[in-house]
Amino acid sequence: MTTLKTSLKRYFLTGLLVITPIWGTVLVLRTLFVAVDDILGDALARFLPQGAYIRGLGIVTLLLLIFTVGLLATNIIGRQVVKHWEEWLHRVPVVRGIYATLKSMMDILSFGEREKYNRVVLIQFPKNGHYCFAFVTGVMQGQVQAIAAEPLVNVYVPTSPNPTSGYFLLVPEREIIPLDMSVEEAMKLIVSGGLYQPTQAAVVGHPVAAGARAEVPIA
Fold first, then answer.
1. CATH 2.30.30 placement within the chain
2. CATH number of the domain located at residue range(s) 114-203 in this protein
3. Burial of residue 92 (number of CB atoms within 10 Å: 0-12, 13-18, 19+)
4. Taking the complete model, does pTM exceed 0.90, yes or no?
5. What's the pLDDT score for residue 214?
6. Does pLDDT of 188 surpass 70?
7. How does the average pLDDT of the chain come out, rounded?
8. Strand order in 166-172's β-sheet?
9. 167 forms bridges with which residues in the sheet?
């Protein structure tokens, strides 16, 4: 009986974890589509003959608008326009915070900035004996590196479940542990809070003893 209760509980929780994000996505998309269709639909209805408006035309207009903006943003002139627009938004006190947060979330979720992350590593954080995922973003140079007693590596430690916030750390090269894991897999694992399990997450390095140096290619 105990085994049956445990199995039923496990099946129920598994089904709940599967259904909840799917249903939530449907509700969010439905709300978004209805809102967009109402806003753009009312605007289009003013220019169309009475009775000519078809429900859903607002969504089609939005899709065409998104496609047109994407098309324009891929050429040189469009990129300059987007750049100046973003610079203007960053000058507005309240708007810049909202825009920066939303843009960071979209970049993370679409992995649009994955070229900034060279590799996934494991570091001890926030204290020794506790490990977390981190993304290597480069190697420290200049005055800071000259002051440090050993080579430092730039790493970004994202928080869960919101990877748009996190910590920028300078970690000694010998203390990072390379992982055979893609940025996408690591990001999914972080966003899900550990519920998602990568298919292959083999550690290709091992913790390095104090005083020894690990050869970790950054390029």
1. 114-203
2. 2.30.30
3. exposed
4. no
5. 42
6. yes
7. 75
8. 166-172, 152-158, 131-139, 119-124, 177-180, 202-203
9. 157
Report the alpha-carbon distance of residue 135 to residue 82 in Å, rounded.
28
Unique residue bearing structure tokens 């859903």: 56
Mapped to the 3 state alphabet, what secondary structure does the chain carry? Answer: CHHHHHHHHHHHHHHHHHHHHHHHHHHHHHHHHHHHHHHHHHHHHHHCCCCCCCCCHHHHHHHHHHHHHHHHHCCHHHHHHHHHHHHHHCCCHHHHHHHHHHHHHHHHHCCCCHHHCCEEEEEECCCCCCEEEEEEEEECCCHHHHHCCCCEEEEEEECCCCCCCEEEEEEEHHHCEEEECCHHHHHHHHHCCCCCCCCCCEECCCCCCCCCCCCCCCC
**Mean pLDDT of the 133-146 span:** 86
Which candidate, 97, 82, 88, places its Cα nearest to that of 165?
A: 97
Instruction: Give the span between the Cα atoms of 191 and 119, in whole angstroms.
Output: 17
Residues 187 and 196: their CA atoms lie apart, in Å, by 10
Q: Work out the average pLDDT over 188-211.
A: 61
The size of the chain, in residues, is: 219
